[in-house]
Target: Cytochrome b subunit of formate dehydrogenase
Amino acid sequence: MKVRFDFVVHWLWTIVFAILALSGLVMVGPRYGWVMNYNIATADYIHRILAVVYVVLTFICIGYEVIRVMRADQKKLAWFMIGREGYQLFTYVTTLVFIITGVIIWVCMDSNMAAVAFSLYIHEKLTYIVIASVIWHIYVKCHALVWPKKTNVKDTHKLSKTR
Ligand code: HEM
Ligand code: HEM
Model:
């Protein structure tokens, strides 16, 4: 079985995204804090580690896309996270906003509170928009979660003979 690069990246991304969204929501405050028993410090720690993984994954995707453009590879990658249109473009743009605001929060935390407050606002509101879009995406693509049924090779053979 050949494992496709875009398929692996999609599922890695999904795991990282889910943990980032959960740990992020825990940090928002009492409304979602119960998810991690109000352990905000651990949520912060997890969020920062996974944020680095998320940035690395994004750069891997961008690098892969640049190589494809240089090789004039026009093939559509169905599972790829970034692209020029549709949900791929949406994911690409929202990812860049997450990274830019995330870096501002991280770097300016002890110096520029106005920048941190503004970035936190964008970072948080974007989380709700992207989670809503992911729920819609999962609804549309939920067939991917159904385990393929085993087809009986003998029966299929018999069927084709009787036709
Ligand atoms: C899928 C991507 C991400 C989601 C859904 C997400 C979500 C969140 C949420 C909901 C918060 C809490 C905001 C608040 O308290 O109002 C947060 C905080 C934060 N995020 Fe993200 N985030 C993501 C990616 C990133 C990235 C890529 C970085 C860094 C490069 C980052 C760095 C931070 C930092 C530094 C905080 C503040 C933590 C603190 O209060 O000490 N996030 N994030
Ligand atoms: C359980 C969760 C998920 C399921 C079941 C799922 C399912 C799928 C499937 C089946 C495809 C292939 C599309 C096709 O063949 O037409 C796909 C593509 C894609 N997925 Fe997911 N996905 C999930 C989570 C996510 C998450 C968390 C994100 C991003 C935050 C995401 C972003 C994308 C993008 C950008 C594409 C490419 C879409 C396109 O080509 O238009 N997915 N997903």
Notes: The chain has one domain: 5-162. The mean pLDDT is 92. The domain at 5-162 is CATH 1.20.950.20 (Fumarate Reductase Cytochrome B subunit). The radius of gyration is 20 Å.
